[in-house]
């Protein structure tokens, strides 16, 4: 009869090895995407840099677009833990804040802090979407996820009673979604050289002026 303790140990070891391989693949892919772009990065090269077999890469990620999305998710979250952004501590802190302007300020402080790492990955997906259907679907997924997040944020702001009269939830959502777009960071920071802190303050002031009394 096989030893159940040994089976559990072997399973645990395989799971930890799979997690380690995933971390190495994501680290390798992140570096290659930033250095060579989406089209210039090949899955065998990712495998080589990660020190794993190319089959291991495809087992973890169905294709290059899926890998790009995973790089984006990890970069946005700051780790590879199975905790959605909505469940993160900084979101809980924003939800607990009673003042709408402060909520917006807290969120934009966070966005400005992560944008230098996150936005280039978004722009890779956007630019790859023109030539790669799988990348196009990943880009659409990124946009949908942002729209969903801004829908929840708009509802949170409306609940404070500090939103301008006449603005519906969809109006507030669309303002948030527009200013949240990577195009704002691309124009102001990448093209015009603004520091992220100035970019965050600009968005904060613009959103407050647009939606709050």
What do these coordinates show?
This protein has 213 residues and is mainly alpha-helical. It is 77% helix and 0% strand. It folds into two domains: 61 residues, Homeodomain-like (Arc Repressor Mutant, subunit A, Orthogonal Bundle), CATH 1.10.10.60; 129 residues, Orthogonal Bundle (Tetracycline Repressor, domain 2). InterPro entries: Homeodomain-like_sf, HTH-type_TetR-like_transc_reg, HTH_TetR.
Top keywords for this entry?
213 residues, mainly alpha, 10 helices, globular, transcription cis-regulatory region binding, HTH tetR-type domain-containing protein
SSE layout:
Layout: H1 4-36, H2 43-50, H3 54-60, H4 64-77, H5 89-96, H6 100-128, H7 133-158, H8 169-180, H9 182-191, H10 196-211
DNA-binding region: 42-61
GO molecular function, one term: DNA-binding transcription factor activity
Protein name: HTH tetR-type domain-containing protein
Major pleated sheet: none
Mean pLDDT: 94
Number of strands: 0
Number of helices: 10
Name given to the CATH architecture of the largest domain: Orthogonal Bundle
Categorize the overall geometry.
globular
Overall tally of domains: 2
End-to-end separation in angstroms reads 72 Å
**Which residue ranges are poorly predicted, with pLDDT under 50 across at least 5 consecutive positions?**
none
- Structural class by helix and strand composition: mainly alpha
Question: Which quaternary structure do these chains form?
Answer: single chain
The CATH superfamily title of the largest domain: Tetracycline Repressor, domain 2
Helical amount among residues, as a percent range?
Answer: over 70%
């Amino acid at each position: 009869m096989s030893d159940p303790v040994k089976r559990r140990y072997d399973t645990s070891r395989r799971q930890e090895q799979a997690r380690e391989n995933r971390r190495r693949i994501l680290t390798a892919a992140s570096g290659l995407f930033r250095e060579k772009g989406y089209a210039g990065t090949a899955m065998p090269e990712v495998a080589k840099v990660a020190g794993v077999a190319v089959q291991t890469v495809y087992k973890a990620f169905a294709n290059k677009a899926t890998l790009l999305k995973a790089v984006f998710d990890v970069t946005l979250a700051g780790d590879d833990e199975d905790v959605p952004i909505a469940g993160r501590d900084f979101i809980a802190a924003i939800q607990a804040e009673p003042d709408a302007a402060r909520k917006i300020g807290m969120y934009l402080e966070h966005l400005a802090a992560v944008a230098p790492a996150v936005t280039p990955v978004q722009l890779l997906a956007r630019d790859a979407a023109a030539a790669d259907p799988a990348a196009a679907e990943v880009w659409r997924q990124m946009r949908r996820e942002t729209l969903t997040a801004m829908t929840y944020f708009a509802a949170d702001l409306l609940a404070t009673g500090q939103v301008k009269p006449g603005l519906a939830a969809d109006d507030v959502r669309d303002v948030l979604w527009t200013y949240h777009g990577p195009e704002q960071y691309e124009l102001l920071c990448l093209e015009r050289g603004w520091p992220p802190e100035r970019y965050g303050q600009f968005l904060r002031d613009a959103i407050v002026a647009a939606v709050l009394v």
